[in-house]
What does this fold into?
Amino acid sequence: MPLIQISVPAGSLDAATKAKMIELVTDASVKAEGIPAARQFTWVHINEVPDGGWGMGGRALTLDMMKAALAPK
It folds into this structure.
């Protein structure tokens, strides 16, 4: 019974995107285990981290900062 925890910035994913992420992560876990029956016992928990609750390289990051870093240039 795997329990998969994913942390994302609060407000970065809508309900449909969370549902798709849960579906695809479950698919990957079942494939990796090679036990199709494990699907019904696979838990995926999406943790929403409050804005500013992330840090990298010694500094706090906000959702806006992350979006700017990922924006096409």
About this structure: The chain has a mean pLDDT of 95. Strands lie at 3-9, 43-49, 54-56, 59-61. The radius of gyration is 15 Å.
